[in-house]
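I am writing to request your help with a piece of structural work I have in hand. What I wish to show you is a protein chain and, alongside it, a tokenised description of its three-dimensional fold. Could you please explain, in whatever detail you think fit, how the structure tokens follow from the sequence? You will find the record immediately after this paragraph.
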Amino acid sequence: MSKQQTAVEWLWEQMDDLIIYQRFIHLLEQAKEMEQQQIVDAYEDGYSDSDNKLSFNKQYYIENYETIRKP
């Protein structure tokens, strides 16, 4: 015979799953920011024009990658 789960025990399990999910979302957002910076840096490294500005690099990222991620 198995022990019946109480409502509080059930809630505790659900909260644990929620905390794991929220941590994953936080890590995913950090990874996206890191990836964006890597792409901007790579573009800057490959672009030899001395008039290159960081804002232009961010614009490159937005035009080429940001639209891909939006559903």
Q: What stands out?
A: Helices lie at 7-46, 54-69. The radius of gyration is 22 Å. The chain has one domain: 7-69.
